[in-house]
Amino acid sequence: MPKHTGKTERIELSMVRDMAEIETDADYIMDFAMALGEQLIICGGELWRAEEILNTVFHVYEMEDASVMILPNLLTISARRAGHKVITRQRNIGEVSVNLEKLTRLKQLVHTLRTDREEPEKLMERFWQAVDVPPYSSAITLLGLLTAILSLVYLFQGNWAEAVLVFFCIAGVYGIRVVLGQMRDANHMAVNAVASFFAGTVALFAGGMSGGRIDPYLVMIVSAFAMLPGIPLINSARELLYGRVMSGSLMLLQAFLETVFIVAGFYLSIALFGR
């Protein structure tokens, strides 16, 4: 009888250990899914695509009752292993900082997991390897931005004086957004308003001193293109096209408010210094 009791205890202990390992694996998977979803959104990915990728992860690791809810600034996921309790994770999403290389590497990681499933405890290691991408350097970002903006000057039949002024306006706008954006609790929309006010003021003063060679309003229009929320606008349209009314509407509203603040900065400069 004592031997039988000891054997039973060992079996029960083994079952408890197995259940604990399953729950630990589920935690690893949920932590990975949460970190993955957050980075997909921050890097500029579409919300519907991020939801699809997270559901793929849950399917690969046989998580049941999986649920993913993504809003522009909130990510909520829940799932469970068979016979175990539901695990829920929720996280606020920071501001979007587009990084297409990081976005591509994360998608490639999930694609690899479909055919070569990694052990749950190693998922976060694979994740950190995928996101170990240096941010775009300020020089490269500014060069790309200026190339696109100066092309617009040519498109609007601007002259070289206007092109040079646009160069200084965009450089100033980029500097303001970098410096003010690093401040604690900085409001992205307010930063854009300050930047547009700066660009408008510089354009108006330079236009007034140029003797008519510089059209300040052309400079302001071209400078505004550097601040428009292009990614949110495109993603909101795609969300609405895919029938995701709530997330699409929220993203569209956010893009609209950002545009309003940009216009407000230009309007204030015209009201104060315009003729």
Plain-language structure description:
The chain folds into 2 domains: 2-130, no CATH class; 138-273, no CATH class. Helix content is 70%, strand content 8%. The protein contains 10 helices and 3 strands; from the N terminus they run H-H-E-E-E-H-H-H-H-H-H-H-H. The protein has helices at residues 2-42, 47-60, 100-115, 123-130, 138-155, 160-181, 188-209, 216-225, 230-241, 245-273; strands at residues 64-71, 74-80, 87-92. Strands 1-2-3 form a 3-stranded antiparallel sheet. A hairpin with a 2-residue loop joins strand 1 (64-71) and strand 2. The longest helix is centred in the first third of the chain and has 41 residues, at 2-42.
Net shape: elongated
Share in β-strands? 5-15%
Number of domains: 2
Structural class: mainly alpha
Mind describing the biggest β-sheet? 3 strands, antiparallel
Strand order of the main beta sheet, please? 1-2-3
How many angstroms separate the termini? Answer: 102 Å
Mean pLDDT: 84
The H/E string reads: HHEEEHHHHHHHH
Contiguous helical run count:
10
Radius of gyration: 26 Å
Count of strand segments: 3
Give the fraction of residues assigned to helices.
Answer: 55-70%
**Poorly predicted regions:** 7-22
SSE layout:
Elements: H1 2-42, H2 47-60, E1 64-71, E2 74-80, E3 87-92, H3 100-115, H4 123-130, H5 138-155, H6 160-181, H7 188-209, H8 216-225, H9 230-241, H10 245-273
Antiparallel strand pairs: 1-2, 2-3
Helix pairs in contact: 1-2, 2-3, 5-6, 5-8, 6-7, 6-8, 7-8, 7-10, 9-10
